[in-house]
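Now read the record:
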Amino acid sequence: MGANICSIHHPGDQTIATLPIAGLSVDSLEQILIGEEEQIAHHRAIQLAALQLIDQAQVATADGARNLTEWVAGRLDLGIDSAHALVRTMRRTEHRPELRQAMAEGTATFDRVEAASRIDDRDPDPLFLHLPVNGVHREAAIRARKSSAEERRTIEDSYVVLQPSLDRSWYKIWGGIDGLLGLMIDGTLSEIADRLPVGPDMPQSRNGAWRRAMALAELCAGDDPPQTQITVFVDAAVATANDARSGVYLQAGPTVGRDALDAVLCDSVGTVMIDREQGEPMRYGRSSRSIPPALRSAIIHRDRNGCVVDGSRNRLQVHHIVPRSEGGATEPENLITLCWFHHHVAIHRLGLVLYRHPKHGRWRLRRATRPPP
């Protein structure tokens, strides 16, 4: 193979195409990228024309799809957002031939046309070529005409979906919401995320997306979250053999490991049901809060109404220093006050452990694999 040939392989490691681009200059590669994007715009223009005819023939309805977007997503193997953008742009440009012509000629990308099609006013520069695509979106947001019915529809169309995996150990969250509420939620999450601690033993804490996820969880926890009634089932034969790494699961929920079990038992309202080796269920304990309210108040007061790690006074909770699963008692000397983040995220999710600093005696956190100073 020559020096100017670049091979593309599929997973079976069989060559499916050769492209004469290896060894080219950066300027040449940039021109290739631009040229290919022009071809993509040209093909998108053809798709819009074909899609318009399909829409007029009501093919999606005849094929049993709920709407054209769903039909496009299935036929073209697109995500629902990409399919929606294609359908929406087709309908907006139906009477804007100049926009489709620009795509067909490769002088405007699909993203630019999609943004420009939102502007109803006829402008001397309908493609806003003097602006980047993000600038066209901003211009569209300013100029787009929105009726009261459309504003109400954005509220009515708002939705949030939580999709658990089969074992409920992971959730996907997605949805859509109107601009005003979206701005409010975005600002709230950003503000909470900015307040979350950052530490060398929590490398994830420097990731903005991770911090926003934790901010959402803290927001839902609230200042005084209701205590969820939790029932923990333990298969004694299985759990005993592997130190509770399996054989422990929640009612109508996931199998949990040691970390999640410790979090459930630390400060919650629940019942433990043990299934002994003979298969006979045995109830252990009453449905009561693991730390009684009076004791919880006393511990928080003893710790000066703040988290012992950083002094935070937000969403205070009481933690078992020695976990209950390891025989830790619900006694004052084994209880300590932590904020929600250090309790549920740093300790019960990231596995950090508490220790007293040998010089000043204050409580600190460290990775379990890292020795204390």
In short: The chain has 14 helices and twelve strands. The two ends are 59 Å apart (CA to CA).
